[in-house]
Write a structure and sequence with these properties.
With about 120 residues, the protein is mainly beta. Helix content is about 5%, strand content about 35%. The chain has one helix at about 110-115, and strands at about 20-30, 45, 50-55, 60-65, 75-80, 85, 90-100, 120. Strands 1, 3, 4, 5, 7 and 8 form a six-stranded mixed beta sheet that branches. The chain has a two-stranded antiparallel sheet with strand order 2-6. The radius of gyration is 14 Å and the shape is globular. The termini are far apart.
Length: about 120
Amino acid sequence: MRLQPIKQPALTTDVEILATHQNLVTKTVTLDASKFASGADGRKIAKVGTVLGKITATGLYGPYNAGNSDGTEKADCILFNTVDLTDGNAVAAAITQGVVREARCIGLDEAAKTALRLVEFR
């Protein structure tokens, strides 16, 4: 348990990833903090729009990477809000269906687009 005060990072407002709110479906996921890299300030920040894959062994979610073999090689959803993972795993909302802005997705490739068949990219 951390009892020391911490300086909160100066996060900018999340970019709007949705092209429209119609047909939006989200689910709750738990992000695996060990799968996200630390920034220069030592904080682990999962950014809105990150394509996520489900880790087979734990059921937690990490950033999608087609070259992995732990389950995150298959895109499952897209992170809906920026989340601070510095203090460990965190619960977050993820998009499973809807219309999103393709240019604002992080880690998106053709294989991820195919796997996210209920998401329309504009």
